[in-house]
């Protein structure tokens, strides 16, 4: 098992994941500060990472977050119709993982384990588990 501090080189999967998450954040209407927190980056790094020629490296933790966000997005699109699929992450939720918070806020507050929890929760809703 690799340590969380291990870096993923820029390019390839990293570039694709950053591009996808940038588009997801825009569709969900997530602010730059919130997007940076979700991706475990400073705002300045998030702004640079969204650009096509980003040459920085991401940690294993950051890549897991990007992957989970893409999976959450996919699950929402499969389970809900638009516009709910696009708004769900920013609506207050009384589900077991959220305690009345917006899913976005719960992800920021509780970190990577909650990313995985939300992904599993949505997969279970749509019958994938």
TrEMBL record:
It comes from Acetobacter orleanensis. This is DUF2384 domain-containing protein. Pfam families: Xre-like-HTH, Xre_MbcA_ParS_C. Residues 16-70 form the Antitoxin Xre-like helix-turn-helix domain. Residues 78-128 form the Antitoxin Xre/MbcA/ParS-like toxin-binding domain. InterPro entries: Xre-like_HTH (IPR046847), Xre/MbcA/ParS-like_toxin-bd (IPR024467). One of its GO terms (molecular function) is DNA binding.
């Amino acid at each position: 098992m690799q340590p969380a501090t291990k870096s993923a080189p820029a390019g390839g999967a990293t570039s694709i994941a950053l591009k996808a998450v940038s588009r997801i954040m825009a569709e969900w209407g997530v602010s730059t500060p919130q997007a940076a927190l979700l991706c475990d980056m400073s705002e300045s790094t998030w702004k640079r990472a969204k650009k096509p020629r980003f040459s920085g490296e991401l940690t294993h933790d950051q890549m897991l977050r990007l992957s989970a966000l893409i999976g959450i997005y996919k699950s929402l699109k499969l389970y809900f119709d638009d516009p709910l699929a696009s708004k769900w992450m920013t609506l207050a939720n009384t589900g077991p993982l959220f305690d009345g918070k917006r899913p976005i806020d719960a992800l920021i507050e509780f970190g990577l384990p909650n990313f995985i929890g939300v992904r599993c929760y949505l997969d279970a809703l749509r019958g994938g588990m």
